Amino acid sequence: MKFLTHHLFLHLLGGFNAYVHAEHIVSNAAEVCQKFGASLAIENVRVNFAEFLPAGTNITLTQAYNLSTCGYTSQVVSNDLCRIAMYVATSYRSGECKDAVI
Asked: Most exposed among 49, 66, 81, 88, judged by the fewest C-beta atoms under 10 Å?
Protein backbone atom coordinates (compact mmCIF):
# COMPACT_ATOMS: atom_id res chain seq x y z
CA MET A 1 0.00 0.00 0.00
CA LYS A 2 2.91 2.35 0.67
CA PHE A 3 3.92 2.06 -3.01
CA LEU A 4 0.38 2.90 -4.14
CA THR A 5 0.34 6.02 -1.96
CA HIS A 6 3.77 7.16 -3.14
CA HIS A 7 2.92 6.45 -6.79
CA LEU A 8 -0.41 8.29 -6.51
CA PHE A 9 1.27 11.31 -4.90
CA LEU A 10 3.92 11.51 -7.61
CA HIS A 11 1.24 11.18 -10.29
CA LEU A 12 -0.79 14.01 -8.75
CA LEU A 13 2.20 16.27 -8.25
CA GLY A 14 3.48 15.73 -11.78
CA GLY A 15 0.02 16.24 -13.22
CA PHE A 16 -0.52 19.44 -11.26
CA ASN A 17 2.79 20.93 -12.36
CA ALA A 18 2.12 20.01 -15.99
CA TYR A 19 -1.43 21.37 -15.81
CA VAL A 20 -0.39 24.73 -14.37
CA HIS A 21 2.46 25.05 -16.86
CA ALA A 22 0.29 24.09 -19.86
CA GLU A 23 -2.57 26.39 -18.90
CA HIS A 24 -0.39 29.31 -17.77
CA ILE A 25 -2.96 30.00 -15.08
CA VAL A 26 -1.24 31.38 -12.04
CA SER A 27 -3.33 34.39 -11.08
CA ASN A 28 -6.33 32.42 -9.77
CA ALA A 29 -5.13 29.52 -7.64
CA ALA A 30 -8.67 28.51 -6.63
CA GLU A 31 -9.67 28.09 -10.27
CA VAL A 32 -6.51 26.11 -11.06
CA CYS A 33 -7.20 23.78 -8.15
CA GLN A 34 -10.81 23.17 -9.20
CA LYS A 35 -9.89 22.57 -12.84
CA PHE A 36 -7.06 20.26 -11.90
CA GLY A 37 -9.32 18.16 -9.69
CA ALA A 38 -11.92 17.94 -12.47
CA SER A 39 -9.28 16.94 -15.03
CA LEU A 40 -7.77 14.03 -13.10
CA ALA A 41 -8.21 10.68 -14.78
CA ILE A 42 -6.30 8.06 -12.80
CA GLU A 43 -7.18 4.38 -12.97
CA ASN A 44 -9.11 3.19 -9.90
CA VAL A 45 -9.39 6.74 -8.51
CA ARG A 46 -12.56 8.82 -8.14
CA VAL A 47 -12.03 12.44 -7.14
CA ASN A 48 -14.57 13.45 -4.49
CA PHE A 49 -13.62 17.11 -4.45
CA ALA A 50 -10.80 19.58 -4.98
CA GLU A 51 -10.69 22.74 -2.93
CA PHE A 52 -8.31 25.65 -2.63
CA LEU A 53 -7.30 26.47 0.94
CA PRO A 54 -5.68 29.90 1.36
CA ALA A 55 -3.04 30.39 4.03
CA GLY A 56 -4.62 30.99 7.42
CA THR A 57 -7.62 28.69 6.83
CA ASN A 58 -8.59 26.67 9.90
CA ILE A 59 -9.50 23.12 8.85
CA THR A 60 -11.71 21.06 11.17
CA LEU A 61 -10.51 17.48 11.36
CA THR A 62 -13.21 14.87 11.76
CA GLN A 63 -12.90 12.62 14.76
CA ALA A 64 -14.69 9.79 12.98
CA TYR A 65 -12.88 6.59 12.08
CA ASN A 66 -11.03 6.61 15.43
CA LEU A 67 -8.96 9.66 14.53
CA SER A 68 -9.32 10.91 18.09
CA THR A 69 -5.92 9.36 18.81
CA CYS A 70 -4.49 12.11 16.61
CA GLY A 71 -5.00 14.61 19.39
CA TYR A 72 -5.95 17.46 17.05
CA THR A 73 -9.43 18.65 16.12
CA SER A 74 -8.26 21.40 13.77
CA GLN A 75 -5.25 22.62 11.84
CA VAL A 76 -4.38 26.07 10.52
CA VAL A 77 -3.03 26.01 6.96
CA SER A 78 0.27 27.88 6.81
CA ASN A 79 0.54 28.10 2.98
CA ASP A 80 -1.90 28.22 0.08
CA LEU A 81 -2.85 24.62 -0.74
CA CYS A 82 -4.90 22.61 -3.20
CA ARG A 83 -6.60 19.75 -1.34
CA ILE A 84 -7.86 16.84 -3.42
CA ALA A 85 -9.99 14.19 -1.71
CA MET A 86 -10.42 10.92 -3.53
CA TYR A 87 -11.54 7.32 -3.27
CA VAL A 88 -8.94 4.80 -4.38
CA ALA A 89 -10.30 1.37 -5.25
CA THR A 90 -7.95 -1.34 -4.00
CA SER A 91 -10.07 -4.20 -5.38
CA TYR A 92 -13.45 -4.64 -7.02
CA ARG A 93 -15.16 -4.41 -3.62
CA SER A 94 -12.97 -2.26 -1.41
CA GLY A 95 -10.94 0.89 -1.33
CA GLU A 96 -9.85 3.77 0.82
CA CYS A 97 -10.32 7.49 1.02
CA LYS A 98 -7.23 9.64 0.63
CA ASP A 99 -6.41 13.32 0.65
CA ALA A 100 -3.59 14.83 -1.35
CA VAL A 101 -2.36 18.32 -0.65
CA ILE A 102 -0.41 20.11 -3.31
From this structure: 66
